Amino acid sequence: MATTNTQVLLASRPAGWVTEDNFRIVEAPMPEPSEGEALVRNRWLSLDPYMRGRMSDAKSYVPPAALDAVMVGQTVGEVQASRHPSLVPGDTVLTDLGWQAFGVAPAKTLRKLDVSRIPASYYLGVLGMPGITAWFGLFDIGAPKAGDTLVVSAASGAVGSVVGQLGKHHGCRVVGIAGGPAKCDYVVRELGFDACIDHKAGGLSEALRAQCPDGVDVYFDNVGGPILDTMLRAMNLHSRIVICGLVAEYNATEPYGYRNLRAVLVKRIRMQGMIVFDWADRYGEAVAGLAALVASGKLRYRESIVDGLENAPKGLIALLKGENFGKQLVKLA
Amino acid sequence: MATTNTQVLLASRPAGWVTEDNFRIVEAPMPEPSEGEALVRNRWLSLDPYMRGRMSDAKSYVPPAALDAVMVGQTVGEVQASRHPSLVPGDTVLTDLGWQAFGVAPAKTLRKLDVSRIPASYYLGVLGMPGITAWFGLFDIGAPKAGDTLVVSAASGAVGSVVGQLGKHHGCRVVGIAGGPAKCDYVVRELGFDACIDHKAGGLSEALRAQCPDGVDVYFDNVGGPILDTMLRAMNLHSRIVICGLVAEYNATEPYGYRNLRAVLVKRIRMQGMIVFDWADRYGEAVAGLAALVASGKLRYRESIVDGLENAPKGLIALLKGENFGKQLVKLA
Q: ipTM beyond 0.90?
């Protein structure tokens, strides 16, 4: 058993792109659970685009991560010791313990996971925030009808890959947007999208016209920036845009200037921002639906794994640059 | 009785601001009604910001007005001769006959108006497209709750003045945005808004903070451009933006670049474009509600009148520059 606790701290706030210098790895004393708490050994750390926002002190939907504190994030871990009757050593739990090897938390903040039929790491992805985001964003905001054309950006990512597959099961024509031929190939061949446009190849407008001959009814946006601006021109009358992530803006020092907002009026588009927290009282509904699809093999899912907590900064940087492939995780020792 | 028909034709499409050169005044033969049609003498012509869009051939929600044809627009007129049993000479009707002294149209396209208790011209304003736009935009898209803060741009205009008064009756704190102290004074003193910000005075952000201490729950946008961009930063969590007009863009040769769209995600804003045509099957509902308020003196309304069809181009140009005050009309001879 380890005697110290490896932690990754937020050392400084990034100006533009995140660098490894923004983090500092330290050894802290092993924490001990107080009454009502449990000690957890983290097995999987989730890396997500939202983390870029938390590293900044710009006003956002949650306060920024604190400097010189453990970097924030969700993990799946194993209970080592418990001072609350609801948990026993060996239980697998979902936590907000962040970028550290061990942590203590009140037992009531730890969600016990059933790992008898579903791999533990899935609760950070397809059955976790990304999957739940895809579910409510698509169905509650995108409101697709069978026969609609659905376009999804970051289509090979943790959210986009689920959105597109749900759209297919719902009877939509689904077109992904992803960076590079390998991702596009995966999106079409493995995930079953009807088509995928490589935005790095240029000519997005022309490709959209070719792949969406009836226009676009729902655009699920995970990226913002020039791709969102181009999509605005491709939308149909009374179409919907789900604003789920603006990765293109997270690393920009200047906000992007959107020039096609006129389409919102002309096409009577409904554009709505979403954060999954707003559906907190309905998570169970999405998890049940997603778990049934995963269990029956109808929802394909891919993980991209970085080995070792010390490599988490590299993993996040790669994710923000779009170099990952599927749900990005860190496997802890 | 006149023997020729004065018409204002669209002579050329504007590049940037509309000029009088974009129109040509001609004398055409007096039209004669065929079977099923009526001859109408126009008494009032409505001037509206949407006309700028129709003068352009950029893709929009309706086809552009044709060159060398009578400029499009709604009128209220008097039936002179009828070859359909539903209309008789002397009837007052709402028409789409456009910028001309007389016109013929199928009787079934002419809506007979009750002018016994409501002035005929009101059917082009508070009980016409602008009022109906205000009604459905505010209630169906803005979805205000009592106690909400509602901000309305072009607050002294045909749509904005109705939006704000409906908001007050609904129990909202209502803050207008208008150009110049005279309009702001009118909006507060005569229309009963809680406050009005003069955007020409500069410092819109600071004024919004002062006048909307609890943030903004509903923004009814009639202007677009930098005012919309600034409003994005003032919006509350889960707020709504009604995109009803983008006057700031109509005359720009380059579209405006919106830099604060990130707020849509962070604040989970719902932004939706609207055109009143989408509620065509429910117009009666709005007209009934508005007429009751007008009849009981609870809805104040002001008209800005240009005299003579030949001055319609000047009137439209002034409207697009924000020089009008209230609903802009042309009174025909």
A: no
CATH number (3.90.180.10, 3.40.50.300, 3.30.360.10, 3.40.1010.10) of B4-125+301-331 reads 3.90.180.10
| A258 vs B: CB within 8 A | yes
Chain A residue numbers touching B232 (CB-CB < 8 A): none
Amino acid, single-letter form, for residue A160:
G
**Whether pLDDT at B61 is above 70:** no
Is A243 close to B265, i.e. CB distance below 8 A? yes
What's the number of CA atoms in the CB half-sphere (13 Å) around residue B159?
Answer: 31
What's the CATH fold of domain B130-277?
Rossmann fold (3.40.50)
The shortest CB-CB distance from B262 to any of A237, A238, A249 is to A249
Cα atoms in the 13 Å half-sphere on the side-chain side of A145:
6
At how many degrees (to 10) do helices A160-169 and A129-136 cross? 40
pLDDT tens by residue, A16-75: 899 999 999 999 999 999 999 999 999 999 999 889 989 998 766 678 899 999 999 999
Among A260, A265, A273, beta carbon nearest to B264: A273
Is pLDDT above 80 for A96? yes
Average confidence (pLDDT) over B13-21 = 94
DSSP state of B296: T
Inter-chain residue contact B255 with A264, CB threshold 8 Å = no
Q: Which residues contact B63 (CB under 8 A, 6 or more apart)?
A: none
Of the candidates B55, B77, B48, the one whose C-alpha atom is nearest the C-alpha of residue B10 is: B55
Domain definitions of chain A by residue range: 4-125+302-331, 129-277
Q: Could you tell me if A257 lies within 8 Å of chain B, comparing CB atoms?
A: yes
From A208-217, B57-66, B144-153, the region with the lowest mean pLDDT: B57-66
Give the rounded percent of residues in chain B with a pLDDT score beyond 70.
97
CB B8 within 8 A of CB B70: yes
A to B CB pairs, distance under 8 Å: 106
Please give the angle made by the CA atoms of B233, B237 and B238, to the nearest 5 degrees.
115
Closest Cα in chain A, distance from residue B291 (Å): 27
> Which amino acid belongs to residue A100?
Q
Note the CATH number of domain A4-125+302-331.
3.90.180.10
Cα–Cα distance, A138 to A279 (Å, whole number): 13
Residue carrying the six token digits 């943030």: B215
**Could you tell me where the beta strands, DSSP code E, fall in chain B?**
4-10, 23-29, 37-46, 75-82, 92-95, 102-106, 111-112, 149-153, 173-178, 195-198, 216-221, 235-243, 270-273, 303-307, 327-331
Q: Under CATH, domain A129-277 is a member of which superfamily?
A: NAD(P)-binding Rossmann-like Domain (3.40.50.720)
Task: Answer whether B277 touches A (CB < 8 Å).
Answer: no
Of all residues in chain B, the one with the smallest CA distance to A60 is B266
